[in-house]
Amino acid sequence: MQRQSLFVFDIETVPDTDAVPNLVGEVGGSVEQRREALEAYHLDATNGQNAFPRQPFHRVVAISYLVAEIEQDGVFETYFLKDLRSGGDVKSSERDLVAGFYQWVDKKHPRLVSYNGRGFDLPVLRHRAMVHGVTAHAYHDTSNKWDNYTSRYAQDLHCDLLEALTDFGAASRGLKLNEVCAVLGFPGKFGVDGSQVAPMFDEGRVGEIRDYCETDVLNTYLVYLRYQLTRAKISRDGYNRAVADIISFIEAEQTARPHLGAFLEAWGAASGNRFLLD
Q1: CATH assignment at residue 9
Q2: Which end of the chain has fewer beta carbons closer than 10 Å to its terminal beta carbon, N or C?
């Protein structure tokens, strides 16, 4: 079935310290003590190679997304940007964020677009749905064996750009979104990176986390547009039209949402103010 909309998404997380006593025993009551114990556990489990918590031990604090309508224009697709925002608000519970994500999938059956969504974002969301007893029917519907959200190669349902750009792990396995953006003249990371999310959360700066997450979504969408152009899924004119859509959206929103204006400024610096393709 041809998808009618794009849903480009990204999540931000902090370690789930509530689960630490169940994992390693009581280690003290402070968040910092539990985070240290969680890192120690993962270092031990990976023979000192990686302290990053496995997917079940992440608490979702932001889900940001861009929605665009898909229209078929002959052999090409055309994308019309409709919204860019973060789910819920700064006081939303993790359950509400996770439930909202899966409710959107149930309602719209969109084409999901992510960067490393199959390796991180979606496994985290699945585990957290299990934690909170959230139902995710459409996402887990495998009545069509090959055409479903969990099928690795079904790019019409979920295009994980990390997988797509590395030939599904055959090349450049550690390729980062920031690296792809640097080559293509997109902003990539600026101002904040993922390592700062937990300290920002501790300081109550959830709004800033959401803003940062939205800029990652914009980067992901820009890379997706260039990928679709390379695949001849959109025309050059269609690409430029979609990019102009982004610029118009930012210009309309940047007074109320300064992080979008900062993104546009960083994009100009990265591209030499050449936003469209000749």
Answers
A1: 3.30.420
A2: C
